Structures are given as structure tokens and as C-alpha cells.
């Protein structure tokens, strides 16, 4: 296993077995193994082999939208964030080492409160406009998608 894959296994072992995990890798959140297959089915993203796992990913700025969709499908979801940036790693002289990460939260449909819950998470690219439970989306969404999100909730 690669160092990242070892970190993934460590986080998965620390979580309840039924929790889907998203792990921040740069500007994307990645799903691994069974979680990647579930994400592909529910979110309509591509799951593909990468080293020793099947993986799928979503951009960080779409976390709120995709997290809400996973929760509405009845899943429990853990979000694992990077706690340092590439710039900070380079400055410290440890840029070839693995990024430090932490579980930012474990969410269920009954505990998720949209932007209020996520705004405390570290990801600076999250905006309240794409996290609202009332269906607000990223400004690049087509109007039909935004309306569909509102109607589903």
C-alpha cells in the first residue's frame, strides 16, 4: 500500500463500518473502495482503479451539494480534512511527507444542518451559497439542477 492508502485504511478502521468516508486530497475529496462504488452510484461520478483501491472524487467546492445528496440517500458520512496546505508543507521543508488529516465530522441526515454545520469545517473554499439545505447551489449550476435540488429537499 502507498502511504496515502495506509492513512485511508487507518481512518476507515477508526470509523464505524457503515460510515462512508470522504478524504480531502488537495482540491478534491476522494472516496476509496466500497465508498467509491457507492459514490459512483449515488452521485453519478466515475469510480476507477488507482493503485490498490477503486477511487472516486468530487471537487472541494461541491462538498456541500454532494454531502447533502449522500445524506438524503440514507448514508452516514465522515469528512476527513487536510489540516495543512501544500504551501505550509513546502515552507516547513517537509513537502514530500504525507499531509496531516483529521476527521472534521460524521454526518447523518438527522444531524446535518447545512451551512451552519459545515462553516466550522476547515475547507476555505466552501461557501454558504452551496451548502444551504434550501437548495442553493454553486453559481455554475444550471437553473434546472438548482431547482431539482430544492424540490428533492
UniProtKB/TrEMBL annotation:
Composition-biased stretches (Low complexity): 123-133
GO MF term list: ATP binding; mismatched DNA binding
Lineage: Eukaryota, Eukaryota incertae sedis
Any one Gene Ontology BP term: mismatch repair
Matches recorded under InterPro entries: DNA_mismatch_repair_MutS-lik_N, DNA_mismatch_repair_MutS_N
Ranges for region Disordered: 120-153
UniProt keywords, alphabetically: ATP-binding, DNA damage, DNA repair, DNA-binding, Nucleotide-binding
Family: Belongs to the DNA mismatch repair MutS family. MSH3 subfamily.
Name of the protein described by the UniProt record: DNA mismatch repair protein MSH3
Organism: Palpitomonas bilix
Compositional bias per record (Basic and acidic residues), positions renumbered to this chain: 138-153
Domain DNA mismatch repair protein MutS-like N-terminal: 3-115
Pfam families: MutS_I (PF01624)
Lineage: superkingdom: Eukaryota
Amino acid at each position: 500500500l502507498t502511504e496515502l492508502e495506509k492513512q485511508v485504511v487507518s481512518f476507515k478502521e477508526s470509523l464505524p463500518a457503515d460510515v462512508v468516508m470522504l478524504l480531502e486530497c488537495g482540491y478534491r475529496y476522494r472516496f476509496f473502495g466500497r465508498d467509491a462504488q457507492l459514490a459512483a452510484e449515488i452521485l453519478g461520478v466515475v469510480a476507477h482503479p488507482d493503485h490498490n483501491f477503486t477511487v472516486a472524487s468530487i471537487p472541494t467546492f461541491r462538498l456541500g451539494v454532494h454531502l447533502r445528496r449522500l445524506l438524503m440517500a440514507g448514508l452516514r458520512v465522515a469528512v476527513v480534512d487536510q489540516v495543512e496546505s501544500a504551501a505550509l508543507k513546502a515552507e516547513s521543508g517537509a513537502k514530500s511527507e504525507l499531509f496531516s488529516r483529521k476527521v472534521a465530522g460524521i454526518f447523518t441526515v438527522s444531524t446535518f444542518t447545512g451551512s451552519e454545520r459545515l462553516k466550522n469545517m476547515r475547507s476555505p473554499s466552501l461557501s454558504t451559497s452551496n451548502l444551504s439545505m434550501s437548495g442553493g447551489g454553486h453559481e455554475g449550476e444550471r437553473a434546472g439542477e438548482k431547482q431539482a435540488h430544492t424540490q428533492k429537499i
